[in-house]
Specification:
This protein is an alpha+beta fold. 43% of the residues lie in helices and 18% in strands. The chain has a 5-stranded mixed β-sheet, with helices on both faces. A hairpin with a 4-residue loop joins strand 2 and strand 3. The chain is globular.
């Protein structure tokens, strides 16, 4: 947190994260605009290689065609919806990938499936939208994680504790092997667990 948001450090391993970021952006654009061919996706992919474009399109097709996503993929909802909420004097903002009357959904193209990694993001989205359910569609892993009202309430308690620490200037890291393994700060963080 400190390296990213306080120090403004871009992190290491930028090539690896830039590739992942380009693929993620293409997936989001394709799902937002219902892009149905690689040729149409290329219009939004000036900085991407053909390999990245193909990988992104395959992830989009997985969302559209895999059984695990079938109920969600056929629903109508708002796409790429800006959301804002204030909590404990701090304003949170983001872009919710897909919003229905019943839940908010975020698409993830992560190579590593870390089920707790995005919990605060989904909590903030659901709080902003006054929804009691949030879902994460891990496209690469063909898995949907659902956070119900009880899950979101537990995450909120954890979020409040973190917010208070941030406000107090307590930026102590909470290293865990599964998180440190893909963190873009792992080569410069003194607390990273690399083994």
């Amino acid at each position: 947190f400190k390296l990213n948001f306080i120090d403004g450090h871009p992190g290491s391993l930028q090539k690896e994260f830039s590739r992942a970021g380009r693929i993620g952006r293409l997936v989001h654009k394709a799902l937002e605009l219902d892009i149905d061919s690689i040729e149409k996706l290329k219009i939004f992919a000036a900085a991407s290689s053909d390999d990245e474009i193909n990988e992104a399109f395959n992830l989009v097709e997985a969302f559209r065609n895999e059984q695990v996503f079938s109920e969600i993929a056929k629903l109508e909802g708002k796409r790429e919806l800006p959301v804002f909420t204030e909590c404990c004097g701090i304003r949170f903002s983001g872009i919710a990938d897909f919003v229905t009357d019943d839940f908010v959904l975020d698409y993830k193209t992560d190579s590593v499936l870390e089920k707790s990694a995005h919990r605060f993001q989904l909590w903030a989205y659901s709080k902003s939208l006054s929804l009691k359910t949030a879902k994460i569609a891990y496209l690469r892993h063909k898995e949907v994680i659902t956070l119900g009202q009880q899950n979101l309430e537990e995450i909120e308690k954890e979020a409040f504790q973190l917010i208070e620490k941030i406000k107090a200037g307590d930026f102590k890291a909470n290293p865990r092997k599964e998180v440190c393994s893909y963190c873009r700060y792992k080569t410069i963080c003194k607390e990273a667990l690399t083994e």
